[in-house]
Backbone:
């Protein structure tokens, strides 16, 4: 069982959360010329690291806020969590 | 190579089974090979076998970081099927089903192919309609499919919950009678033994640490047991694909996720088919030893750990008990996990790459085991001829740019959504 610290509610068990995937992918800027390659990278391509991974989680059975988690994909150690508009401290 | 038969069994019984030949050798890596296959799992071993048998290329090495058959080919739930709706999938997996039917004879190794039938349960009228559509698509592609009613299923799985007041009543199901199971370890060992007998070097405890690429062409592989020259490299490393692709500066539409399975204590014969619960994440078959072999869905977050987490086991077994309440009294024997190379449309990638001589076989998601023979067959063709076989021509990397994706499940590029 993962124990995830929601930046709004504190530590809760994994059961209260749902996963939202890689937090580093950015939607191409609207209103500007977007190359096909940029779109493909945004939609389909991932770094998929073994080790530290920034990812989105949703406190779906709690405060319903989205936030960011920095977690190791091999050991599942959680280094830090932060709000969507913040950066990790660790 | 010594042929396995009832006669060889009797003959060796007289000498206390002490004189059997080794099934495959343990060679030192040579300086150079025509083809190197990275990954000694089912797909890698099958690829090497078909390279030797179909294309006469026998100067081949399989490099395996651990031991052969220790990854996903030894961790899956052994299910075989070709019950797909899209043509690209249907043709590819049905070709595989035909190979499965004669695989034991072909390999002279009993892979215990058991066409016990796979049943997908339906729990609503809408699901029955969807299954009728899929069944019709399958039959148009020459694949066997039968739509079962509630009364048919009462005879086949009488111990399932057929009450009308349960949350997900059983309306019927779709069955592929030729679907079933095979003994997974035997598949790896059977391919390994035949490949070895034709001259393929199976090199275990040999980790690939880098690639020598020059002017866009592969020239060799760096390993924990020295550098080896080659002109062609095939990658068959499932969940570790991204780690090797990083060494080749290739970014892929792949995420690694852990998928768990579990088995119960062995009990007397009860469940004669493979059954999938249509309203949640649960499927089950009974092994020849009597254990209930059960699986469900991904843990739901990126993972390279070959072990899972309890919430998903609980979620899967909750679904299982909804359909088979009598399983609540079974004791759990063990659980384990394997790393899936989840592609962004749920379909595999078997293709050439931007580097000349590097070939890619990945993206098997939940379904790599059943594809072992067909994947090996078409991948061997792709490597030997330097062009894709018609059966894997749609499983290309280009589809993530052209938009011709094969999204059988229709969930979009979010592999953790089951």
Residues:
């Amino acid at each position: 069982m993962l124990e995830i610290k929601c930046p709004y509610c504190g530590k809760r068990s994994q059961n209260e959360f749902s996963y939202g995937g890689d937090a580093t992918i950015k939607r191409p800027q609207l209103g500007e010329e977007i190359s096909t390659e940029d779109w493909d990278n945004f939609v389909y391509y991932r770094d998929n690291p073994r080790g530290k991974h920034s990812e989105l989680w949703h406190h779906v059975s709690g405060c319903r806020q989205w936030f960011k988690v920095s977690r190791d994909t091999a050991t599942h150690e959680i280094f830090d969590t932060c709000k969507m508009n913040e950066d990790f401290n660790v | 190579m010594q042929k396995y038969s009832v006669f060889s069994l009797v003959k060796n019984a007289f000498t206390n089974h002490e004189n059997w030949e080794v099934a495959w050798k343990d060679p030192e890596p040579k300086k150079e090979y025509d083809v190197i296959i990275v990954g000694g799992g089912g797909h890698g071993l099958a690829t090497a076998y078909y390279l030797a048998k179909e294309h006469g290329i026998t100067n081949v090495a399989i490099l395996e970081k651990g031991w052969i058959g220790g990854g996903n080919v030894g961790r899956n739930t052994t299910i075989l099927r070709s019950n797909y709706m899209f043509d690209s999938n249907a043709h590819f997996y049905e070709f595989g089903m035909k190979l499965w039917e004669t695989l034991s004879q072909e390999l002279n190794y009993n892979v215990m192919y058991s066409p016990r039938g796979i049943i997908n349960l339906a729990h609503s009228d809408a699901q029955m309609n969807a299954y009728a559509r899929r069944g019709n698509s399958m039959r148009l592609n020459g694949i066997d499919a039968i739509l079962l009613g509630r009364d048919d299923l009462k005879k086949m799985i009488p111990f399932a919950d057929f009450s009308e007041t349960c949350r997900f009543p059983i309306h019927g199901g779709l069955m592929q009678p030729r679907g079933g199971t095979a003994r997974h370890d035997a598949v790896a060992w059977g391919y390994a033994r035949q490949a070895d007998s034709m001259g393929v070097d199976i090199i275990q405890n040999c980790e690939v640490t880098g690639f020598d690429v020059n002017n866009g062409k592969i020239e060799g592989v760096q390993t924990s047991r020295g550098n080896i020259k080659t002109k062609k490299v095939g990658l068959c490393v499932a969940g570790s694909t991204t780690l090797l692709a990083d060494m080749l500066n290739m970014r892929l539409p792949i995420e690694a996720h852990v998928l768990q399975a579990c088995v119960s204590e062995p009990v007397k014969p009860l469940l004669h088919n493979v059954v999938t619960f249509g309203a949640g994440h649960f499927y089950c078959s009974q092994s020849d030893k009597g254990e209930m072999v059960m699986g469900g869905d991904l843990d739901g977050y990126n993972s390279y750990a070959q072990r899972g987490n309890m919430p998903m086991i609980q979620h899967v077994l909750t679904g299982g008990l909804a359909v088979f309440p009598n399983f609540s009294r079974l004791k759990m024997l063990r659980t384990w996990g394997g790393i899936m190379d989840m592609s962004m449309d749920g379909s595999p990638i078997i293709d050439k790459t931007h580097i000349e001589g590097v070939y890619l076989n990945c993206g098997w998601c939940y379904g790599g085991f059943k594809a072992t023979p067909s994947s090996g067959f078409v991948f061997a063709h792709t490597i030997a001829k330097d062009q894709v076989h018609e059966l894997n021509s749609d499983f290309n990397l280009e589809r993530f740019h052209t938009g011709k994706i094969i999204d059988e499940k229709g969930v979009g590029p979010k592999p953790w959504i089951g």
